[in-house]
Carbamoyl phosphate synthase small chain (Halorussus aquaticus), 356 residues
Amino acid sequence: MTAAYVALEGGSVVEARCRAPGTSHGELVFTTAYTGYEESLTDPSYEEQVLTFSYPLIGNYGVREERFEDDRVHPRAVVARELTDDVAEWLTEEGVPAVDKLDTRDLVGQIREGGAMKCGISAGPDASPEKAKEALADCPGMSDHTDIGAQVSVSQRETFEGGDGPDVALVDCGAKGSITDSLLDRGATVHVLPYDVSPGEVADLDPDVLFVSNGPGDPANFAAAQSLVEEFVGEIPLAGICLGQQIVARALGGTTEKMDFGHRGVNQPVRDLRSDRVVMTTQNHGYTVAEPGPKLDVTQVNVNDDTAEGLESDDLDVITRQYHPEANPGPHDSLDFFDDVLAMVGDERRTPVAAD
Ligand SMILES: NC(=O)CC[C@H](N)C(=O)O
């Protein structure tokens, strides 16, 4: 068995088996999702993180490109109890180190106790505990990645023609492909814009909706997208998913903070405060909105810890979600979010979550 080592903040080093060689580091986080590894591993929100799967067997239904959310793997390394050959080969081709045959239950327990932590990984024929520790010592904190948007965004506008629906300007801070697909499915035309697009370029486009995507890292490091929201709020309907919700909140006078270990999985319960309906949601975030600010109402909360899951303003035409209504992976219970976003165009806005 080719060796691998995972060095953790605090000094411990865990021995593992190499499934894809290399040296890497990142913020060690875990997802409890038991399916959807193809989607999670290609989700740009995991940029600069090392993803641990708490579910013990990853890869048992192969690797299919049609499930990918982007054209490359985003976590800097992958940790699981057991990775199949299919996934090991894929990650080897992608140059993303992967390790298995370690006690992921213990690792997840440590992250829950100590919070998301930095780690260093050394895997392959030349692997050593020292190399893993050196990689850990070089690991920046998540908030130190001050221009992380540049690593995941399109560099110029890409337009996807839809039907007769509205024109959506999607600010790509690391967008999952399923967000564009969900809008196209509803007849919208989607203009995918760089994360640092100027207000002038958006004004020239004259979209019907400004939509801020999900993405990696600290929302405080997306100043350009925040300025866009400040510029266009009240002029154009605004939507946001995950990082997008955090950026919109910050732009409208709210605050964000880092969570201990975040929410990552496909069964996070969310209560809509107006209908009292609870839906299961897909989540992947380590920051959260602490204060929504004076202009936004918290309309949905996480049942487990009461954090803000939905923010809205009827007056300003703003709807955002902290979770991932586009699913992929996970439940489809919240796909109607996209109907609600498009319904802000014109006068026919519906109640965001219908009571049963
Ligand atoms: N999925 C996302 O958009 C993640 C948002 C942000 N990077 C966080 O960790 O909170």
